[in-house]
């Protein structure tokens, strides 16, 4: 028996076995560690608090804030319009339609940036798109937007321009509200998200 025939006899049964194995339904990572590290270095995931404030004032329908803190923290205070998906539930199947879609611009936030960054890294590695992180987190949002500090008299003009915008944003968004407990404020239900269409398999082939 020649070598080609032996090889064919070995490969054909292997092909039949592989074909019979059920499709892998587990979620595979889309990025390698170096690719993800490169994106982290470039800060591609961050959206500034000024950009968020502007979108909130404009009532931009494409913005969806996602609070990744626990439910108790969310109930005590959250940015109006945000939905709550705790970091511990980020891989829950019931949240996939919110995170894996191409309609909304999702912006994760937590008190700082650690938990929000973790949520972004997980969803980014899964190949989900349109997920970002609010730079500085909720504490920085409170400091820069809700309670901005007036720059010193020697500050450059652009600092005063930024301050004027933030003062206006603070007034429009309720000013200093992050310091007030809102335990009795009802949480808005999660909005309906249009599911991202699944890619169809190409028909034919050998």
Describe the protein.
With 206 residues, the chain is an alpha/beta fold. It is 41% helix and 9% strand. It has eight helices and five strands, in the order ααβαβαβαβαβαα. It has helices spanning 3-20, 33-42, 49-57, 71-76, 96-99, 114-125, 137-146, 157-172, and strands at 46-47, 63-67, 83-84, 105-109, 131-134. Strands 1-5-4-2-3 form a five-stranded parallel sheet. Helix 3 (49-57) packs across helix 8 (157-172). The longest helix is centred in the N-terminal third of the chain and has 18 residues, at 3-20. The radius of gyration is 24 Å and the shape is globular.
- Approximate shape: globular
How helix-rich are the residues, as a percent range? 40-55%
The biggest sheet, with number of strands, parallel, antiparallel or mixed sense and barrel status, is: 5 strands, parallel
Q: Compute the gyration radius: what is it?
A: 24 Å
Distance between the termini: 28 Å
Class inferred from helices and paired strands: alpha/beta
H/E order of the elements? HHEHEHEHEHEHH
Share of residues in strands: 5-15%
Number of helices: 8
Which strand order do you get reading across the main beta sheet?
1-5-4-2-3
Using DSSP, what is the number of strands? 5
Query: Regions with pLDDT < 50 over 5+ consecutive residues?
Result: 6-26, 179-187, 199-206
| Overall residue-averaged pLDDT value | 78
Oligomer: single chain
């Amino acid at each position: 028996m020649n070598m080609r025939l032996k090889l064919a006899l070995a490969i054909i049964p292997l092909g039949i076995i592989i074909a019979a194995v059920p499709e892998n339904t587990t979620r595979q990572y889309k990025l390698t560690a170096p690719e993800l590290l490169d994106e982290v270095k470039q800060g591609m995931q961050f959206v500034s608090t000024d950009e968020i404030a502007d979108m909130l004032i404009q009532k931009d329908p494409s913005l969806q804030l996602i609070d990744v803190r626990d439910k108790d923290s969310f109930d005590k205070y959250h940015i109006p319009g945000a939905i709550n998906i705790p970091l511990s539930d980020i891989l829950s199947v019931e949240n996939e339609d919110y995170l894996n879609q191409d309609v909304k611009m999702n912006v994760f936030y937590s008190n700082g940036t650690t938990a929000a960054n973790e949520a972004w890294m997980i969803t980014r590695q899964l190949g989900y798109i349109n997920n970002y992180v609010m730079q500085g987190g909720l504490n920085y949002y409170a400091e820069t937007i809700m309670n901005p500090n007036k720059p010193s008299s020697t500050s450059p003009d652009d600092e005063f321009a930024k301050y004027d915008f933030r003062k206006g944003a603070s007034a429009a968004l309720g000013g200093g509200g992050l310091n007030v407990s809102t335990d009795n404020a009802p949480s808005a239900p999660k909005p309906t998200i249009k599911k991202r269409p699944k890619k169809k398999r190409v028909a034919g082939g050998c």
